[in-house]
C-alpha cells in the first residue's frame, strides 16, 4: 500500500504550537535517488561529447548492433526504467525535436546542474528556492547568449557550411565533414520556400541509404531516387529519356472486386475464354496508359492484390514503359510534390495533365544493388534527395543520423539567423557573466546562481577531458581569457589549445545553445520539485 | 491499529473503536500524501505506472494523484471521491478539500479519545461549517458590474491557481491565455470549445491562444492547401471500398469480364457517393474514417479539400465549432447542416504541419497550443491549464471573489472561534476543533514553502483579530502580507465547495462504527 507506507509519523498539525519540526527524510531520499539516477544517465553519454568524443556500441535485445555518437539515439536505446532517468531521456528527445543537434550537450548540462542542486539541497536550501533561481538563471543565460551571437545572412553559404561542419565534426563520419556539410546546406537551402523563408520542413529532404561504396560517394540528387529495381523481368526498358511519369494508385492485374467472388468454369473452352479475357483486360489498360504518352509508371504498393503480374509486365515492356512497383503510400506525397504531378487512382482518370515530366529516368547499379534515378524534372517541387553510401550498414546508419543533425543545424539557422561560437566558448562566457551577476544579487538566489554558474563549466571541461587535454588547465585558462574580454575563445580540440574559436570556423546556431539551456533548466526544475514516487495502476 | 487486517482476503468485520480508528488512519494517510502538493511552493509527485509501458507522470494536481492510487481502505476512498467531485464541479481545490477533510478527522480523533460522542462532534462541525460559510459570504466581493475590475479579478484568480502549478513561472502569460479563452465563451461553462493541443518542443512561454480550430491531420494529396470561405461537411462514413460489402456475400460469375464489370460497378458506387457529397456544395470534407486513394483523387479533381481519419473527438469538436452536423448519409443535401469558416490553411507548429480553421461559426471556440520541453511538462501543463479554465468559467457565472493565501481560512477560523465561545456544552469543543482544522491549511502552505509555520500562523491570527484585515501568507517573501495588494484571489465557489464537501466527508467517515469488508471474488492475487 503506497498510501500507508508514505505516512511520516510526525504527529503535528495546527495544534503543535511549539517547534516546527518536519520529518522530511523520505522526501529527501526520493529527491536524492532521482538526482542520482538522472546523473547516472548524464554520465553515460558524457564521454561522447565533442569532436573527440567516443562512440557507444549498443546491442539491442533483438541482437541488432548500433554504433553511434548521437546522444538522442544512445538514450533512446537505453531503455531506462527509473522515472527521473526517463525524464532525461525525454529531455534529449525534445532537444532533438527543437534543434536537432546538441542532444548530448543538453543531457550533460542537466546532469551538471543536478549535481550542483544536490549540494545546494544538502546545504539546506529549499528546493523551490533552487528551482526559482534556476529559472532566473536560464532567462539571464539566454540574454548572455544573445549578446554573443553573430547575425547571419542566409546568402553567406560559407558560414552555413562552417556550422554544419562543427556539428559533423563530433561524429563518426567527421572525416567526411568537408563533403557532407556543403551537401547538408545545399539540401536545406533548396527546400526553403521563398514564401515562408523561416520555415523548413525536413520531410522535404529525403535520405536514401544504399549499401556499398564509401561515405565519400554520398551525393545530393536533384530529383528522385528509389532504392528499388526497375521491374524488367519481361525485358522492359531500364533507361528512358524525356520521361512522362505517372504515379498510379491502382493495379495493372486481373480485376478483383471487394465482394468475394469466384469464377465458375464448367468446360475447357470457357477456360480459354477466361485467359483471353484476362489478356484483353490488361491489354486494354496498357493501351490506355500508352495513349497518354506515359512511359514511366510508379505503382503504389497494395496489400490486396499484386501491383503487376508477369502478363501485365510483358505488355508494359512491349509498350516501352518503365515500371517501378511497390512504392509505399506515405512516399506518394513526397513523390507527387517532387514530380509536380497528381496521383492517379483509377484507369479512367488517366490523363496527360496528371503526368510529371523528367529528362531522364534510369536504373543505375551501385555496389551490389540497383537504384532508380529520376533527374531533370520539369517544374520540380521544393524537395531534395540525398543518397547516402557506406561500406557497411552501421556506417550508413550513423552517417544518416549525422547528416540529420547537420540538416537540423542548417534548419535552425534558417529559423533563427544567428550564429554563436562553439568549442565551449558560450558556456564559459555564460558561467563568467552569471557568476558576476550572482555577486550583485542578495540572499539564497545569489548563492544558488553562483553554484549553477560554475556548473556550466562542465561543457568545456568535458570537451577538454574527452580530447585528452588537461581539463583543469584548459578551463582555468579559458576563464582567464574570457575575463580579459576575449569572449570568442574556446577549446581548439584539433590543436589541443585555446584559440579564438571563430577563426577556426567552429560555429554553431544560436538556437542549439539557447534551447539546450532552457530545456535543461526546465527539466532540472521539474526533477527538483518531485518529492515522492507513487506506484499506480 | 488495525490497518493490516484490512487486506485480508476473507470478509472481515471491524467494530466500534477499531473501525473508527481504521477510517481515521486511512483518511489521514491520504491527506498526508497529497499535503505536500498544496500551495505555490508545493512539490510534485511522480506517478509510476506498474502496468505495461511503465509510463511516468509528473504531477502536482491532487485529483490526478488520487485518481491513480491503489486504495483498499474504504475511508480513503471516500476522500478520493470528494476530490473527484471537486474536480468535476469546480475543477480546482482538489488538494485543499482532501487536506481539510483529513485535518477535520485528525481533530475529531483527538475529541473521540477525550470520550466525546461522534454525534456531538458532527453537530459541532455542522454548526461551525454553517458559521464559516456565512463568514465567507459576508466577505466575498462581487465585481460583476464593473467589467474592467471583473477582468482583473479573473486574471488574479487564474494567476493564483496557476502559481501552484508547473506554469507558475509564466503564470501571467498563461493567465492571460486562460482568461481570454474563458471570456470568449461568454458565460457558458462548456469547456469543449476550448481545444488544447500539445506539441513537444519549444518552451512553455511559446504557447499561444489561437482563434479558431486546429486539427492535427494532413490534407490529401493534390488538394488545395488553402480555402477561403470554406463550406465544411463533417462526416462519419466509410470511404474505403473494402468496407462496402455485405458480410458473407459472394458473387459467382463465369468470366473475367464480369469480374471487371463488378469492379467497375463498385468504383461507380463510390464515385456516386463522392458526387453526392460534393453535391452538398462543399469545398472541405472531413471524415472520421479513412478516405482511400480513389475517392481522394475524386475530391482532388473537384477541388475539394478532404481530410481523412480525423479522430472522434476532433470531428465532434469540429462539428460543434463550425456549426455543422456530423453526417453519415448524403441523400438529402438540403437537410444536412454544413459548417462554415472563413479560412482553412496549413500551418506549421514545431516540426509538424497542422490544419487551421479560422473565423469559425461559433465565435467562442478557440485553441490553446501548448509547447513544452517534454511530454511530462506538456501533460502537466494541460492539467494545470484545465484547472484554471474550470475555475474561471465557474467564476464567470458566480463572480464572487475572495482573497487567497490562507486568508479565507483565517477569516472562517476567527468566526468559528467566536461561535465556540458563545456555544455552551460539549459541542463547543468540536467547534473549536473545526477552527483548528481550518488553520491547518495556511500552516501547510507555510510548511511546504519551508517557512516557520508556527510563527507565521500566530502572526496571522493576531492580524486577523483586528477587523478587516487582508493578511495572508506571502510565500514569496516568506512573511505575512496584504493579499489584496499582492493580487492573490480565489473564487468563492471553490472555497465554498471545499468547505462544504470536506465537512460532509468528515461527517460521513465519523459516523462509521463498523466496517464490513466483503470477501473478494476469487481471482489471482493482484498484488
UniProtKB/TrEMBL annotation, chain A:
- The reply to whether ATP-binding figures as a keyword in the UniProt entry is yes
Subcellular localization is given as: Cytoplasm
* Alphabetized Gene3D superfamilies for the sequence: GroEL (3.50.7.10), GroEL-like equatorial domain (1.10.560.10), TCP-1-like chaperonin intermediate domain (3.30.260.10)
Region Disordered, annotated ranges: 1-25
**Which SUPFAM superfamilies does the record cross-reference, listed alphabetically?**
GroEL apical domain-like, GroEL equatorial domain-like, GroEL-intermediate domain like
Q: Which GO terms describe its molecular function?
A: ATP binding; ATP hydrolysis activity; ATP-dependent protein folding chaperone; unfolded protein binding
- Alphabetically ordered keywords of this record: ATP-binding, Chaperone, Cytoplasm, Nucleotide-binding
What does the record give as the function of this protein?
Molecular chaperone; assists the folding of proteins upon ATP hydrolysis. Known to play a role, in vitro, in the folding of actin and tubulin.
Assigned protein family: Belongs to the TCP-1 chaperonin family.
Q: Which PANTHER family match?
A: CHAPERONIN
Q: What is this protein called?
A: T-complex protein 1 subunit delta
Q: Please tell me the species this chain comes from.
A: Canna indica (Indian-shot)
TrEMBL record, chain B:
Superkingdom, according to UniProt? Eukaryota
* Entry annotated with the keyword Isomerase: no
In terms of PANTHER family, this protein maps to: CHAPERONIN
| Transmembrane residue ranges | none
Q: Which locations, inside or outside the cell, does it occupy?
A: Cytoplasm
The protein in question is named: T-complex protein 1 subunit beta
GO CC aspect terms: chaperonin-containing T-complex
The family line of this record is: Belongs to the TCP-1 chaperonin family.
Recorded GO MF terms? ATP binding; ATP hydrolysis activity; ATP-dependent protein folding chaperone; unfolded protein binding
Do the record's keywords include Flavoprotein? no
Which of UniProt's keywords are assigned here?
A: ATP-binding, Chaperone, Cytoplasm, Nucleotide-binding
Matches recorded under InterPro entries? Chap_CCT_beta, Chaperone_TCP-1, Chaperonin_TCP-1_CS, Cpn60/GroEL/TCP-1, GroEL-like_apical_dom_sf, GROEL-like_equatorial_sf, TCP-1-like_intermed_sf, TCP-1_chaperonin
- Give a single Pfam family match: Cpn60_TCP1
Please explain the role this protein plays, according to its UniProt record: Molecular chaperone; assists the folding of proteins upon ATP hydrolysis. Known to play a role, in vitro, in the folding of actin and tubulin.
Assign the protein's first listed, main location to one coarse class.
cytoplasm
- PROSITE patterns recorded for this chain? TCP1_1, TCP1_2, TCP1_3
